From TrEMBL:
Domain of life: Bacteria
InterPro entries reported in the protein's UniProt record: Isochorismatase-like_dom, Isochorismatase-like_hydrls, Isochorismatase-like_sf
Keyword Cell membrane tagged: no
Keywords from the UniProt entry: Hydrolase
Keyword Lipoprotein appears in the UniProt entry: no
Matching Gene3D superfamilies: Isochorismatase-like
Lineage, uppermost ranks: Bacteria, Bacillati, Actinomycetota, Actinomycetes, Kitasatosporales
Molecular-function GO terms, alphabetical: hydrolase activity
Full protein name: Isochorismatase family protein
Pfam family, one: Isochorismatase
Domain Isochorismatase-like, residue spans: 11-148
Length: 189
């Protein structure tokens, strides 16, 4: 864990906080906690004048996040502007074949925070690419989530979502800054 105080971030990347994953009976465990933390991060990033990027996954036909379905919709309100944008993606990695890298470079961003769903998939893939591109990446432990991993015959018992999220953090290596609480992160333009 990163010692306090945590240097501020210049941008907040909100990964796939779409209704299919955070509302209703198919929401990730701890969805209310996640939404509370992400809502607070967005409010503080707005107040700090930081760039906010909402990534929105375009799932395949029949998927819960299929474009233009209720589950595909971003769950939290977006104030689209120069400082708050939506980028659609079709891959776990928010940088892959999107304008995210160009946007961050164009705005002079070097320090970013990542939050959202799923910890071991899109959050991890986006954070990993950001690290590879030389960004400072902060991942608040209480602001990302995933589903329980089902048991696999002859391999393992079920893995609770909280453990899967922690393993996803660990797998990102020692360059990422994991902080315990989203509330400890400040934002700057």
């Amino acid at each position: 864990m990163t010692p306090h105080p945590v240097p501020p971030a210049q941008a907040l990347i909100v990964v796939d906080v779409q209704s299919a994953f955070v509302a209703g009976p198919d929401a990730v465990p701890e969805a209310p906690r996640l939404l509370d933390r992400v809502t607070d991060l967005i409010a503080r990033a707005r107040a700090g004048g930081s760039l906010i990027v909402h990534l929105q996954n375009d799932g395949p036909a029949g998927a819960p996040d299929e474009p233009k379905t209720p589950g595909w919709e971003l769950h939290l309100p977006v104030r689209e502007s120069h400082r708050e944008v939506v980028i659609r993606k079709t891959d776990d990695d928010g940088f892959y074949e999107t304008g995210l890298g160009d946007l961050l470079t164009g705005r002079g961003v070097r320090d970013l925070a990542v939050c959202g769903v799923m910890s071991e998939m899109c959050v991890s893939a986006t954070a990993r690419t950001a690290l590879e591109l030389g960004y400072r990446v902060v991942l608040p432990h209480d602001a990302h989530a995933t589903y329980d991993i089902p048991a696999a015959a002859d391999i393992s018992d079920a893995v609770p979502a909280a453990m899967a999220s922690r393993v996803a953090e660990w797998a990102l290596g020692d360059e990422i800054e994991i902080i315990a609480r989203a509330a400890d992160l400040a934002f700057t333009p």
